[in-house]
Amino acid sequence: MAKTTRVTKKRVVKVEPIGKAYIKASFNNIIISLTNNAGQVVSWASSGKMGFKGSKKNTPYAAQMAAEDCSKTAYDLGLRKVKVYVKGPGAGRESAIRTIHSSGIEVMEIIDVTPLPHNGCRPPKRRRV
After folding, report:
1. Is residue 94 a contact partner of residue 60, using CB atoms and an 8 Å limit?
2. Which helix (H) or strand (E) holds 125?
3. What is the pLDDT of residue 1?
4. d(C-alpha 16, C-alpha 28), whole Å
5. Measuring CA to CA, how many Å separate 7 from each of 3, 4, 11, 12?
6. Using an 8 Å Cβ cutoff, are 71 and 106 in contact?
7. Contact at 8 Å (CB) between 90 and 23?
8. Three-state DSSP state, 19
9. 106: β partners
10. Residues 38-89: pLDDT tens digits?
């Protein structure tokens, strides 16, 4: 008996002219997601997706390349203005924002959402050498 293949429909994301840009810049990678106001991802890119490996992933140039790729796709779909939410201590935060703005998408405001501990974890005990 032959198995019937199930046809899956591709999720259609409604692209409005105003959206949000999330930039997560960690010490190892940079991930950029452009979403509509509902939070559905329109386009995304990371420095690893762009072909950078190892320590080159956390450079401003890698962030620039990822932001350029991501914003070009979103601009073609109709995204024109974004609010930028930046998270993390990585190197490519500013260059990613500049690249998004220079690609034709207007940056309305920049918000830093990096989590800060309110005296979080207990530090490790003192080293005895």
Report:
1. yes
2. none
3. 63
4. 32
5. 13, 9, 13, 15
6. no
7. no
8. strand
9. 81
10. 999 999 999 999 999 999 999 999 999 999 999 999 999 999 999 999 999 9
Which run of H or of E encompasses 30?
strand 30-36
Q: Is 39 left (phi over 0), alpha (psi -120 to 50) or beta?
A: left
Q: Could you tell me if 29 and 42 are in contact, meaning their C-beta atoms sit under 8 angstroms apart?
A: no
CATH of domain 18-112: 3.30.420.80
Alpha helices (H) along 19-124: 60-77, 93-102
Break the chain into its structural domains and give their ranges: 18-112
**Which residue is it, tokens 């930039």?**
23
**Chain centroid offset of residue 114 CA:** 14
